[in-house]
Amino acid sequence: MRPLLIAFAPLLCAGCIHVPEIGGMALPSPEAQGPISYRSLGDIPDAPPATSAAMSDSAIRLLSEQRGLTESAAGQLRTEPFSDPAPTPPEYPF
To answer: What are the Cα distances from residue 40, in Å, to 35, 47, 54, 58?
Structure first.
């Protein structure tokens, strides 16, 4: 097995020549990308202020009410009778 692997090693290495291609598209050369610039950590904005507990509770309560209304509307729609729409007329060739 080892002699077989040694015999095919150059062929395996030749298959790695086109590795820097992704999906058939060649990657840009490092020279074409230009110099690397990193973002200054001093430019990062401060964290937004924390939401108050009262505002969070109010939002949770409002969303729960909306969810209840949506569920009741969906239940009403499920119980209503459904009639199939009229079939579309056939297309006429021009």
So the answer is: 15, 17, 37, 39
Contacts of 21 (CB under 8 A, 6+ apart): 27
Instruction: Please give the Cα distance from 5 to 70 (Å, whole number).
Output: 66
Three-state DSSP at 12 gives helix
> Among 9, 8, 30, 27, which Cα is nearest to 18's?
27
Distance CA(37)–CA(34), nearest Å, equals 9
Query: pLDDT (tens digit, 9 = 90+) per residue, 38-75?
Result: 888 888 888 999 999 999 999 999 999 999 999 999 99
